[in-house]
Amino acid sequence: MTLKVRKAVFPAAGMGTRFLPATKVMPKEMLPVVDKPIIQYGVEEAISSGCDEIIIITGRGKVLIEDHFDISFELEQTLAQRNKHNLLQTAQKVARMAHILTARQKEPLGLGHAVLMAKRLVGNEPFGVILPDDLVDSPGNPCLHQLIRVFEEKKASVIATQVVEGKAISAYGVLDAKPVDGFNGRLYEISNMVEKPAFADAPSNLAIIGRYVLTPRIFEMIEALKPGAGGELQLTDALRNLLQYEKIYGYVIEGKRHDAGDKLGFLKATVEYALQRPDLGPEFKEYLLSLNVEKASHGPV
Ligand code: UTP
Q: Ligand 1: does its nearest atom lie under 6 Å from the Cβ of 43?
């Protein structure tokens, strides 16, 4: 097995029910944060982490995602004719940023099942997984690259984690893990994982978030799973079984993660990313300050 992580898998076949009715027709992964679809943030992260092959797991109604990363001949021609060079560059950059492959998940049978759909395209190589609705804001230090550095040193799968205090931990997969030397105290060796435990039963405050570097053995583990509720195959179950054969590490990532698959998380990400934009930030900040939110929060503005 090579140690170079060249491929990144993007499970994007889910139904996005938390965002209905917006996602009835529109893929959740195409909702824009400021002016970029959520999934483009992840694709840019994978590329700046050294991946040159992007594998998107799509499903029914997800064709817009493929179109987004394709050349739009009419658009490019029109922008060129109108001398809109900056916009032309923006459109061209998206279409040429990566080698995009897709695999279809015919039914949304869980994250594990979605990852399994990439088996043929990944082959016998380690690979990254990016859940596109988790945005990680870490300028100059792409989240997936942080995991790849650990993978290259430890030669074992790595899961991104963040510390979640209090009862909110029950919304996550949680690690049972002990700290390991090096990596500024951010690295843990995992002994078990529990999906969405009650607060009292959580083995730690280390929550699994949507970035992984995995060895190809994970595919065997997913194939061996017995489907759970609703016929779903869960990635966490496959990872737990992988622990019988290989070490797995948890890495507390540097950067701020936003759950853009959730309405509140999406709004927070939009505000924070907009504030960071040189072309929008100053004016947007002024607008936010002018809202006098304390008063407005007691009722409609
Ligand atoms: P989520 O649970 O956040 O996405 O899965 P969802 O199921 O689309 O959203 P809700 O809960 O109904 O609102 C995380 C990622 O995994 C993908 C999703 O597209 C999302 O990007 N996924 C999930 C699949 O590709 N296939 C699945 O069967 C489930």
A: no
| Under 8 Å between Cβ of 175 and 208 | yes
Look up residue 265 and give its amino acid: G
Q: Which atom of ligand 1 is nearest to the CA of 29?
A: 21
* Domain assignment present for 294: no
Whether 20 lines ligand 1, by a CB cut-off of 6 Å, is no
Q: Which residues contact 203 (CB under 8 A, 6 or more apart)?
A: 174, 175, 176, 177, 192, 194, 197
Residue 111 CB–ligand 1 contact under 6 Å: yes
Distance CA 251, CA 145 (A): 12
- Confirm or reject: Cβ of 16 under 6 Å from ligand 1: yes
Max Cα separation, the chain?
A: 63
Q: What is the CATH number of the domain that holds 107?
A: 3.90.550.10
CA–CA separation, 251 vs 163, rounded Å?
10
Nearest residue (by CA) to ligand 1, atom 22, is: 14
Distance (Å) from CA 145 to ligand 1 centroid: 23
Q: Give the strand pairing for 187-195 and 206-214.
A: unpaired
**Residue 297 dihedral angles phi and psi, to the nearest 5°:** -70, -15
Q: Cβ(30)–Cβ(75) under 8 Å? A: no
Q: Is 2 inside a domain boundary? A: no
Q: What's the domain count of the chain? A: 1
Residues of the domain holding 97 = 7-288
- From the CA of 59, give the closest atom in ligand 1: 25
* Predicted structure pTM score: 0.94
* pLDDT tens, residue by residue, 216-233: 999 999 999 999 878 899
pLDDT averaged over the chain? 93
